[in-house]
Each structure stands twice: as structure tokens, then as C-alpha cells.
UniProtKB/TrEMBL annotation:
Its main location: cytoplasm. Gene3D superfamilies: P-loop containing nucleotide triphosphate hydrolases. This is PhoH-like protein. GO terms for molecular function: ATP binding. One of its GO terms (cellular component) is cytosol. It comes from Leuconostoc gasicomitatum. It holds the Pfam family PhoH. Keywords: ATP-binding, Cytoplasm, Nucleotide-binding. InterPro entries: P-loop_NTPase, PhoH, PhoH2-like. It is found in: Cytoplasm. Belongs to the PhoH family.
Length: 336
């Protein structure tokens, strides 16, 4: 039987209180929803009520967030969600380390940092390996961080250009009816890439670098026959590559280059019966030196908390459906 307890946290000043509870107490609501506790701020104190173990986690989260505020870091809903998730996963001890390094400053001068333990592993893998695979659901920051690392590498002079690509596979929509050539047809599907670029270095600077060929954003078909030296190369939506396309892409790697391959194997849009090159690569390349695989889960989602819940719900439904199909096939076989 769980023991209900109450702990009291005392704010040091009004500024700390305002930053910690958020607008309309929204930060407190995120902690409550994530850890099943009740938080109530009144005067210079806040009470934390709930199961003993949950209260301990909530108290630890509050202290970690307070530490960021003391270091003049303005916390956001993403920071709160990350702290709660890391507390649930037992990795909260690493939380402050996430803020010890700024990967880059964005277009508005704000520091860009990793938001959770999974992202930290991802960034470390990119630095250590020649080819990094980031595999996991939407909202885990794979694409954004890949672009951040590419721009940071370009600014340091480690590479001469950035190349970003994705397979021209339709996701429930028809490319054929869109105007223009293949690149123009695929451009709308690359919107997350453009958004990330614009957010980090600004739309005008992005366009200038594209006009000079320093940044190239193109369909995967444009990579065939090339050797990409001194480049930072990102393949997005890699779950929609075929085995042949994946092999073609990976063998474009040249000297002085890095590759990142991102994808979500739960969102494959290939024709029925086609094997995903990303799934095959996981098995074929798992023991190859200088290649690293980082697997994200719904717990690494850094968007609104409900996104993680949506991912979990779909995964549970798909698992249930697969089990049902397996049972039906077994029954059909035994009846025959």
C-alpha cells in the first residue's frame, strides 16, 4: 500500500517562484500530469502531495529546475517535460549535464542544447562516428539536432557543405499532381528541414548558402553516382528507402565527411511487400566499426506531453493487432 505524504518547497524570491511555476502555473501542471502528484503554490511556499515515491521524484525535479534558474537559464515547457521524463527513467542525475554545453546559438541568440539523455547520446554518437543512425518516433528531435550539428560543423570549418536529402516517397499524398520537377515536388516534404535551418541561421542566410551551393537540399535520387567529400550529409525519412537506395546512399560517403541517417520504422510508406532499407541496415551494419545506432523511444519525445502518449497508444494498438493476426494465423493453420 502506497504512503501519502506532503513535502514543502520554499521559494527564495518572487522571481524564482514566477519562473518555476510558469504562466498560469503551467509548469506545475506538467509536473502534476507527468508524476501523478498535486502541487500548490501559495505565498513563498509550494506543497507537493502524493505517493511517497512520486513526491520524491517531483521534489527532485523541482530542485533540478531551480538549479537551472539559479544559473540564469530560462526554463521552457520542454525543459520541464524532459526533467519529468528523466525522473521517471531514473536518469535525472544527468539533467544538469544537458545544460553544461551549448551546441549553437539560434537565429535569435538563444542557446540550443540537448533536452534529454537520448539526445545527449545521439549528439555524442555523431561526434564519435562517421555514420550515425537515429531511429525513433516523431518529436524526438532527430532532424533538428542533425541540422544543428551540421551547421555547427560548417561554422567550425570542419566541412565545406551540408547536404540534406530524403526519398521521394508519397505519404498518403500524390507527388505526381504537384507542379514542377522532382526537386520542386519534394520540397514541401522537406519543410521540417527548411524550418530548422531558418530557425537556426535565418531564412535569408539559409537562402544565400543554398544559392552558393554550401547547403544542398535534394531528393535521394540526386545522390546517385556522387562521392561526397568534406560534407555533412543528412538522410531524413530513411524508413522509406529501399535496400538498394540505402546502400547507394551510404556508399556516397567521402573523405572528411559525416553522415546522419534518421527514420521512424513505425511510419513506413513504401509499397506493400517492399523491405525498408533502414530496417535492413540495422541488421546488416550493427557490428560495423565507425557506425553507431541510437534508438529513441516515446520517452524521448520533446514536444507536447500528449505526443508521447499518442506514440505509446499507437504502439500498443499495433502490438495488439500483430498478436491478434498471429493468433488468427495459428488458428487457421491448426484448423486446416
Amino acid at each position: 500500500m502506497s504512503i501519502q505524504i506532503q513535502q514543502i518547497f520554499t521559494f527564495e524570491n518572487a522571481e524564482q517562484q514566477a519562473k518555476l511555476i510558469g504562466v498560469n502555473d503551467n509548469f506545475l501542471r506538467l509536473i502534476e500530469e507527468g508524476l501523478a502528484v498535486k502541487l500548490h503554490a501559495r505565498g513563498d511556499q509550494m506543497t507537493i502531495n502524493g505517493d511517497e515515491d512520486k513526491v520524491a521524484l517531483a521534489n527532485a525535479v523541482v530542485h533540478e529546475l531551480t538549479s537551472l534558474i539559479k544559473h540564469q537559464i530560462n526554463i521552457s515547457p520542454t525543459d520541464v517535460v524532459s526533467a519529468v521524463t528523466m525522473a521517471q527513467r531514473g536518469t535525472l542525475d544527468y539533467f544538469s549535464d544537458l545544460y553544461s554545453e551549448t551546441l549553437i546559438k539560434d537565429n535569435k541568440g538563444r542557446a540550443v542544447r540537448v533536452k534529454n539523455f537520448g539526445q545527449r547520446q545521439y549528439v555524442q554518437a555523431i561526434r564519435k562516428s562517421d555514420i550515425t543512425f537515429g531511429i525513433g518516433p516523431a518529436g524526438t528531435g532527430k532532424t533538428y539536432l542533425a541540422v544543428v550539428m551540421a551547421i555547427a560543423s560548417l561554422k567550425r570549418g570542419e566541412v565545406e557543405r551540408i547536404i540534406i536529402t530524403r526519398p521521394a516517397v508519397e505519404a498518403g499524398e500524390s507527388l505526381g499532381f504537384l507542379p514542377g520537377d522532382l526537386k520542386e515536388k519534394v520540397d514541401p516534404y522537406l519543410r521540417p528541414i527548411y524550418d530548422a535551418m531558418n530557425g537556426i541561421i535565418g531564412a535569408e542566410h539559409t537562402q544565400r548558402l543554398m544559392d552558393r551551393g554550401v547547403i544542398e537540399i535534394a531528393p535521394l535520387a540526386y545522390m546517385r553516382g556522387r562521392t561526397l567529400d568534406d560534407a555533412f550529409i543528412i538522410l531524413d525519412e530513411a524508413q522509406n528507402t529501399t535496400n538498394q537506395q540505402m546502400k547507394m546512399f551510404l556508399t556516397r560517403l567521402g573523405f572528411g565527411s559525416k553522415m546522419i541517417v534518421n527514420g521512424d520504422i513505425s511510419q513506413i510508406d513504401l509499397p506493400r511487400g517492399a523491405q525498408s532499407g533502414l530496417i535492413s541496415a540495422q541488421h546488416i551494419l550493427k557490428d560495423v566499426n565507425r557506425i553507431m545506432f541510437i534508438n529513441f523511444s516515446s520517452a524521448d519525445v520533446v514536444r507536447h506531453p500528449v505526443v508521447g502518449l499518442i506514440v505509446n497508444a499507437y504502439e500498443a494498438a499495433e502490438t495488439k493487432l500483430a498478436a491478434l493476426k498471429k493468433e488468427q494465423n495459428a488458428n487457421g493453420f491448426s484448423n486446416n
